[in-house]
Amino acid sequence: MVLYVIGLGLGDEQDVTLRGLNAIKQCKKVFLENYTSVLGVELEKLVRFHPPRRCFSSGRVCSKLVALTLCLVILADRDCVETGADQIFEHAKDDDVAFLVVGDPLCATTHSDLIIRANELGIKVEVVHNASVMGAAGACGLQLYSFGQTVSIPFFREEWRPDSFYEKIQYNRGGGMHTLCLLDIKVKEPDFEAMCRGRTVFLPPRFMTVNQAIEQLIEIEEK
Description:
This protein is of the alpha/beta class. The strands form three sheets. Strands 3-2-4-1-5 form a five-stranded parallel beta sheet, sandwiched between helices. A two-stranded parallel sheet has the order 6-7. The chain contains nine helices and nine strands. It has two domains: 2-133, 3-Layer(aba) Sandwich (Cobalt-precorrin-4 Transmethylase, domain 1); 142-222, Methyltransferase, Cobalt-precorrin-4 Transmethylase, Domain 2, CATH 3.30.950. Helices cover 32% and strands 16% of the residues. Mean pLDDT is 84; it is low at 45-63. It has helices at residues 18-25, 64-69, 78-82, 86-94, 109-120, 133-136, 164-174, 192-196, 210-221, and strands spanning 2-7, 29-33, 73-76, 97-101, 124-128, 151-153, 181-183, 185-186, 206-207.
């Protein structure tokens, strides 16, 4: 049996490759990674040419993506991928399983770790590549050959304000290189105050804006 790690590209459900689509259609389980990036189509949008199906994770009508997969789509949040991946591996021992990733599968260390762990368990893994922001950055007119290290800019918290990414931007600039900055997103982040009171509550999704990233960079520079 095979664990297919499939890139979905950067647009909508039509950006999946033919190879990826054929792999998805033969899988018994389909997981959609739902926290390192955001799908470009709404999950609840009804499908024009296919009858709606039920989403395993929420019980609501799923999106156009379900029409492509012809099976249930299981939303895989951070806990599922980082600490609960055993359920993915268990399914992959007996059936073909698809793990869908927005963009290209190997642009995040989380997905590389998933592949390594699957290999250690003797599970065959096939990666289906697709377009990613790493290549699409060239659309802004800058030559990809002139980019230096890519950095991630996380949301600052009151007790945690890292600045290591700033040094990499400085290094790139000193060498005459561009920097691709990946801005933080927070999806299904736990409310720790509620957890302390014994309740499981998740904060509303947050997506870092360019202005927020610049404000954090200025704060670091003014230290």
